[in-house]
Specification:
With 180 residues, this protein is an all-beta fold. Helix content is 0%, strand content 56%. It has a 6-stranded antiparallel β-sheet with strand order 2-3-4-11-6-9, with no helix packed on it. It has a 5-stranded antiparallel β-sheet with strand order 1-17-14-19-12, with no helix packed on it. A 4-stranded antiparallel β-sheet has the order 5-10-7-8, with no helix packed on it.
Amino acid sequence: MRHLTTSDYRKMPWANGLGVTTEILRVAKPDGGVLWRLSMAAVVEDGAFSLFPGIERNLTVIAGPGFDLVGPGLKLRADPLVPAAFPGDVAISAVGVSAPSNDFNVMTERSLPRPEVRVLRQSEALAPGGTLCLFALDAGKVEVAGTVVTVARHDLLVCDAGVGARNTGAAAVLATRLIL
């Protein structure tokens, strides 16, 4: 298991230049492209999202009121703590931004199975299977493979395939299961 903290993350401009993202973890393909990536960003006004050809995206609002995701043939609501999946190569815009919202993003190469993204509230568990990434929305404790780990707000635990987890004391943990 790896335990990453906010000091391990890096800030970088959005691909479209309209904002800044905090890259939490990136796993690259041999050619340097993205195999999968976890990041955070702030959506502070209506505007276009960056395009990521060949990438599937999953966005979860982790703070703020949320907004609509609108594009050709697509309209999704990005509500707090409700994952919203959409293709990265469709021109999507945030619409109806009434106040700043922070979001957690999971990006995976389209050839991979879609990730499972869900919120683990206190005492909820996630069965073993795939690589687990546990993002703490608040400080608390998370049990991974029988070991209790103390996490600070926005820490990330990356757990080996086949490990289960349980939220034992954080208000909420965003769990992402990747099948690689």
